[in-house]
## 1
Amino acid sequence: MKSDAQYDVIIVGGGNAAICAAIGAREQGGRVLLIEGAPEYMRGGNTRHTRNIRCAHNAADEFFTGPYPYDEYLADLVQVTGGPANLDLAKFTIKETERLPQWMSAHGAHWQHPLAGTLHLGRTNRWFLGGGKTLLNSYYRTAEKLGVEFRYNTMVEDLVIENDRFTGVMLEGEAREMIRGKAVVVASGGFEANLEWLEEGWGPAARNFIVRGTPYNRGSMLKNLLSKGAQSIGNPKAIHAIAVDARSPKYDGGIVTRLDSVVFGVVVNNLGLRFYDEGEEIWPKRYAIWGGLILDQPDQIAYSIVDAKTIDAFLPPLYKPFQSDTLEGLAGELGIQADTFVKTMEDYNRGAAGNSNVRMQTLDGVTTRGVAPPKTNWALPIDTPPYYGLPLRAGITFTYMGVAVDERARVMDNRGQPFKNVYAAGEIMTGNILTKGYVGGIGLAIGAIFGELAGRDAVTHGRA
Amino acid sequence: MAELDLFAEANRQLTICNACRYCEGLCPVFPAMEIRKVFTPNDIRYLSNLCHDCRACEQACMFVAPHEFAITFPRIMSEVRMESYEHWSWPRFLARSFSDTPKGVLLGLAAMAVVCATGFLMIPSHRLFAVHTEAGSFYQIVPYLAMILPAMFLVMYGSVIWLQGGMRFWSEGKESPLLNAPKGIGPLYRAVRDSFTVKYLGGGSAGCAYPTATPTQWRRVFHAFVFWGFLSDLVSTTLAFIYQDFLHILPPYPLTSLPVIFGTAGGVALVVGVAGLLVFKMRSDRAQAADKAYGLDYAFLVFLGLAALTGLFTLIFRSTAAMGTILIVHLATVAGLFLTAPYGKFVHFVYRVFALIRYQIEAQGAHPQGGH
């Protein structure tokens, strides 16, 4: 091979997997360039919106409230995903999480002590101090000190691959600048911010998605890899979506746009009809199903309805609820089918008549009678004005489809052979482990483990 | 910003922060926020004084401008803090110096000028510029009563206004049911401990994002120097008072005496700490604090630094002909410092300590609202 490469490793992307790859590669002695599409102040992709990481451990410590051994972690993963796409990679990942906290601390992470009350996941997950952006800042400072070079605000247009070997990246822009490298780690995230692409699977409904994270995850590198013969893995339509306030920013609203009001009342669509048991499940399951439910409704919108009894039971939402002293009035405020809505509410209230004491901490079995769909828990009548309505849309968090990789994080081609010097890490390859559903904090673990692995391997083998 | 707008904006930001809570490990402001759902002006004033301006949250926040949420948390806390100083102080026309720094500085300078003019005009030059080494030498320049009476008046005046402000803060806080938690000695102990260690300039554990985005423990160190230095000087003054009025030993005291040891250590610590904080402040990002905060901070630091520096000079040159002049300048800066004490940045310690006590009391009984 030609040896005029400017870099041993080029990292495409700027989130957790990318920066861990950069650190890994640099610590292995390589000359490293990280190319981040976002401007510096927005660097880090969706890692900015993360706040904890799930790691296996055999004993409680200062930051874990109890043991969470390998077997339990694996069992949780199998249960939630219905079986990982690549069981060996999943096992490898979970094993590796045991050493992650130490690696993270050594590279700048600080941790938050579990606080009573807020942190339901204190046993399984470790909270980094200040959340994802603070973690990224620490990693970037570490990488900078190590001598990693950065280009922000720079989009890669093409991964140049000649005879199955990566030789460089061509940047977007008039100049068509070419940067040569001996290996590449593609860690550029999923394609959840690319609504046109999502439209291929979801139809025009995709236009009504609210993208919870960075607008820069457009999947252009994923598309590029697939066009070069990389083997895809995962369902292109598979997404993670939750209910968010319909008035949220189109992109990057993050955690704060999520609404927790659903279980306190009922949810109707714009025809004024209920469509699902609002009392089915408690956190965290309810969190993840409502995105999909809303997508199935006309115009992909729904409305969470509560009354004066429960408006103060959940945190004040980011945007003021619509409000009226009558149900007709509320329908007018929300712009939904008034007659049907009032009838829906009357039916529901008849079914919930007489229910009073609900216990939100548990599935309390306080259910409606003779209403379809039922509300099987916490079914209080909604009869105390003023009435409140919060518009909901599906907020997309991430996509599952990516490229297949081997145990060294090398991208597989369609013939089942790995590219020799093309690596993938992070969301772009989580489809190897997650198929549907996920356990909170595993995405970051996958990114860190495969990122660092890819970075190291790219230096040791890319030079050959 | 008009008062209503100020609290409306603080409320807007707190609503976003309370839905996020990623910063809850950085300092006590966020845990104190989480046990609330609505924020009265008094709540917000309390939170603003719990805020140590460490700025770690600014670095942690995904929602800072140009994001449309436009979170400016350290700045809005700083704006409210400025408002709260004025709100709790007294009398009104003097309290206004909080929003009018030049006026506050002029007040301090005027005090200095008066003391200097009085000193230089009233003390005969043959005494002022002579070498004094005998016991009670300082009183050859300024008679004892002329020194002690104004000083005691200023300290008492300042303390009364401080205490009254603190009590207003406290009594307004009683509108919050959270303060009904059991009190006892525990919260007080923890609050005092956290004040003395300046724990919350630690940014959680990584350090302050001040003066730049890179976390550092130096601001905490410098602040501790100032705090401990000031206390050391306070001890020195008290000891000198005891030596003189109870043991009947007149100054100047030998270099190895307790008043001089405490005074020197305190003075050096103050000068180092003040210098460090000044340099940091000059290098810091001004956009992250209220515009008026800077004037107030600089004025306080400069007066404090000058008082410490001239105090050290008084010691160094006490057996030379320059002693008289330096002593008068020293007394003048101390007068300026304490005259402006109830109307300048000095007050922050009062509300900070009260806020920390309140935080510890509230934390005993309360749980975060809503949930994740």
Note: Chain B touches chain A through 38 residues (CB under 8 Å).
## 2
Amino acid sequence: MKRNHAARAIPALVFAAAAMLGHPGKAVSQSSSGHEHHAKGSSSDAEAKSKAMTPTPTPDGKAVSLPGVPPGRLAMGGGVTTTITGEVMDPACFLEAGEKSIGKGHFQCAVDCARSGQTLAIYDREIDRIYFVAGELPGRNPNDPLMQYIHQKVDVLGTVFHRSEAWGVVIVKVTPHKTKAGAASASN
Amino acid sequence: MKPFRMLVAVVALLLLSVATFAAGQTSAIKTIVGEVVDPACWVVNGAKGAQHAECALACAKAGQVLAILEEKTNKLYLIATENPGEDPNAQVLQYVAKKVTVTGRTYTRGGVTAIKIAEITPGGK
């Protein structure tokens, strides 16, 4: 009997493990099997990823939007110029340590990383999305408009692009995010 | 007794996996082949290749972290460092706009994938 129970339990545990590993919103490694899955995709899949996602018109036709991005106007190159809200963070540490890397204990680390060449990013906690910051012009440090807002929630007016499974934003203006009560939010 | 031991081993493995992934850490190492690109110009303009090398180099030196665009999948892997204070571009700057084979630990979170480079060699199959 014990043997039978064990025999039934093992596949169930393996299934549970597989389900957990595929859980969205959690950090997962690119396992060799996952990579192979991508690699087995047709070349047209790769070609599709190399093209910027095309914004779609909003129902009223007055604006365009990308998935999860507030509606805005169509920009050159297929981006959407709009305002996104999120926290300024160091993506390198976030990718490994998760949300605990955004906060008091990690502030100096993020500053050091940014100063040593790590490009900062905007993290939209509500939809679990990182927008990496794309410099507008060669030779200009993309971190410049963000350094004073590290670990603060901000509103970023800019143009959002999506290509190769990555979200990028070319910043026009950054302002501290104001809550409904009117106070600017800060976490550090 | 043997099935019981096997069950214990599977449960231990499962718990270890859950703890590892909850912490966002993995010991899994991956090798990718692709081009070293400036992700800003790639995502915004689809620009890469030798004709874009000078621009990518200028962007990288100004503070734009570089990335590997995997050849097979067109997936973008941002470069991440092991420790704060390290320049993530240091290992790839000499290969801008060139094909490389990179082995390292990858992380995916918030829709972004990054790789901590353990080894990089020019070219690749």
Note: Confidence is low (pLDDT under 50) at residues 1-41 of chain A.
